[in-house]
Amino acid sequence: MNPSAALAILAVVLAGGATALQAPTNARLMTAVGSPVNAAFVSFAVGTAVLGVLALVLQTRPDLTAARGLPWYAWMGGVYGVVFVIAATWAVPRMGVATTVTLMVAGQLMLSLALDHFGALGVPKQPINLTRIAGIALVIGGVLLARRG
Asked: Where is the signal peptide (predicted)?
């Protein structure tokens, strides 16, 4: 495995760990601010501040000309993040972190399979096959086991 691929794997695994931390952190915040929407708002405000500092430190400059030419769906990432954060914030006190995150991963995998298969949103086409379906079935089985335990 080349170093770039290893770094990408490590980054994604750490991001997954951050997701597991984010859900109970925001659930705890929800108890103080009164709703999952308020908790998401605070979470995104803090995240926006951190991103602003990172942009300044890294001296990144957006290409606004290129950004204007993007399709509408390229602007929707924040909306998906809102859905994710509110759902996780609301679900963790009801189902626990493991079940919430496992269900979210199952949903991510199911939609990812379809996006890959059809090459939607500009991703390279990767057809559905039995191996990929089996992998998702194992995750869904994991959801059921985590929920039972």
From this structure: 1-20
What are the boundaries of each domain within the chain?
Answer: 3-148
Predicted TM-score (pTM) of the model is 0.81
Mean pLDDT, range 31-54, rounded to an integer: 96
Which pair of tokens denotes residue 52? 């602003």
Running DSSP on this structure, what letter comes out for residue 59? T
- Residue corresponding to tokens 């500092």: 53
Distance CA 36, CA 29 (A): 8
43 neighbors 29 (Cβ within 8 angstroms): yes
Residue 26 scores a pLDDT above 90: yes
What lies within 8 Å, CB to CB, of 143 at 6+ separation is 99, 102, 103, 106
Q: How far apart are CA 65 and CA 122, in angstroms?
A: 20
What average pLDDT does the segment 99-122 reach? 90
Using DSSP, state whether 128 is helix, strand or coil.
Answer: coil
